[in-house]
Design a protein that fits this description.
438 residues; N-(1-d-carboxylethyl)-l-norvaline Dehydrogenase, domain 2; six-stranded parallel β-sheet; 14 strands; globular; binds nicotinamide-adenine-dinucleotide
Length: 438
């Protein structure tokens, strides 16, 4: 099948490669010339395990080509995936749909009547209906628009795209269902559930899933707040409640909370959209979910202050800066915000991260960057583990302790072997636990 993928960020680049791996003829469309050049040269402009190797293979197989805008070639495609960004609107909690609207309107000038347009971006419920009207008006025929939300996770994006736990499509026409079934046929052949829904439900599935996940993380972080003042241990608590299969133990790790380009902006956008629809109170609790999450960042800043007194001139080492391991995505990263706040308070923050130092240089040049782990920690008055890269679990606390000035570490992700670190003479402050005096 001939398909286009419009918008080649984390989602679109992954989807384009995945579609090529399934054997389709894929045209990736991306207006950002730097990104486009890099992709066309087979170099992934961001870090994503597996995708870096799969991209050049897809290009050399002849299945994946790139262009900056639509032309006669892309206009002949049977299916167009819209994968552009829907960030948080500046100065508001609402999702900014201007990129989706612009991409859809531009596409409407080019598509053939039988083509199906599948939106994969995460949008406020009701967006697709507005797009359909606008596209139909421009195209001069009824456009087959469908919504096909994406559930990939950065760090395992290609694997998630090729082996999703479900495929969700919301459609207005049987033709859209048929075309989407055909494009995903190799995945469906493996038994992956294919959920045919109405369009508003398909739009809602994605934000509802993210709202649930964010709530789960903030729930255990709220328990951490209680544990910290009552002598309890939120890590042990999570393990104990997680045995109940109705609760489950995934996404129940206490720490400095969630970030990234999806969860924070999606829950805020969901609240904003529900308020527009007059049902804001139904999801008002998501404001608390957001607040609990952000309070974890405050907590680390407060802990740093109480450990170091004045932060002026103090050396702080941040281990990991991306919002999650196996990614270089710095969008709304808790570790990044904490580093920036400590810097603003006068600390000299040196960041170590296996893959994110290059994007960090542009994003937050005031932070010091060090590729060598031991050099990054040399002379540190405080170490903070901000992202749970496996490299940090494997640190030898004895060797590591030799280079720092003060053997104090805040485990912002609860991944360290606390007794082992304590035995090496470290003061370990683990969020949600009362183990720091060991
Ligand atoms: N990143 C994820 O893990 C993930 C997972 C599931 C869903 N999503 C959703 O997917 C969407 C994209 O997210 P992302 O993380 O890939 O964003 P991103 O910012 O990395 O990428 C968006 C891309 O779209 C391009 N673009 C903007 N306007 C365009 C246009 N008119 N035509 C073509 N390209 C255009 C941008 O230049 C950019 O490269 C968002 O709605 C997001 O919520 C993301």
């Amino acid at each position: 099948m001939k398909v286009t993928v419009i918008g080649l960020g984390y989602l679109g680049a992954t989807h384009a490669v995945a579609m090529a791996e399934l054997g389709h003829e894929v045209i990736g469309i991306e207006p950002d010339s730097k990104k486009l050049e890099s992709l066309a040269a087979g170099i992934l402009p961001f870090h994503e395990p597996g995708l870096d190797a799969a991209l050049p293979k897809a290009i050399s197989s002849g299945k994946l080509t790139f262009q900056s805008e639509h032309n006669e070639n892309s206009a002949s495609a049977d299916l167009h995936f819209i994968c552009v960004g829907t960030p948080q609107t500046k100065g508001s909690d609402a999702a900014d749909t201007t990129y989706v609207v612009a991409a859809a309107k531009e596409l409407a000038k080019w598509i053939k009547p039988t083509a199906v347009v599948a939106g994969k971006s995460t949008v406020p419920v009701g967006t697709a209906a507005t797009l359909k009207t606008a596209m139909t008006e421009i195209a001069g025929f009824e456009v087959h628009l469908a919504w096909n939300p994406e559930f990939l996770r950065e760090g395992t994006a290609l694997e998630d795209s090729l082996k999703p736990d479900r495929i969700v499509v919301g459609t207005w026409s049987q033709h859209s269902v048929d075309v989407l079934r055909e494009v995903y046929a190799p995945i469906l052949a493996t038994g992956t559930p294919f959920l045919e829904l109405d369009v508003p439900t398909a739009e809602l599935v994605k934000v509802a899933a993210n709202a649930f996940l964010a709530t789960k993380i903030s729930f255990i972080n709220a328990m951490a707040e209680v544990a910290e003042v009552s002598g309890a241990d939120a890590v042990a608590l999570a393990r104990a409640i997680g045995y109940d299969e109705r609760i489950g133990n995934k996404f129940l790790r206490t720490g400095i909370g969630f970030g990234g380009g999806c969860l924070p902006k999606d829950i805020r956008g969901f609240v904003a959209r529900a308020e527009e629809l007059g049902v804001g109170s139904a999801v008002d609790f998501l404001k608390d979910v957001d607040a609990v999450n952000l309070r974890r960042r405050d907590k680390v800043v407060e802990l740093a202050k109480s450990e170091l007194g004045s932060l002026t001139g103090k050396a702080v080492t941040m281990l990991g800066i991306s919002f999650k391991p196996d990614s270089d995505d710095l969008r709304d990263s808790p570790a990044l915000e904490i580093s920036q706040r400590l810097t603003a308070l006068g600390a000299k923050v040196t960041v170590h991260d296996p893959v994110s130092l290059t994007p960090l240089a542009t994003r937050s040049p005031e932070l010091y960057r060090e590729e060598d782990l031991l050099k990054a920690a040399t002379g540190a008055n405080l170490v903070i583990l901000g992202t749970e890269w496996k490299h940090y679990r494997e640190i030898d606390p004895i060797e590591f302790g030799k280079v720092v000035s003060t053997k104090t570490i805040i485990d912002g992700r609860n991944v360290l072997d606390v007794p082992k670190w304590q035995a090496a003479g470290w003061r370990v402050i683990a969020l949600g636990r009362n183990v720091h005096n060991g």
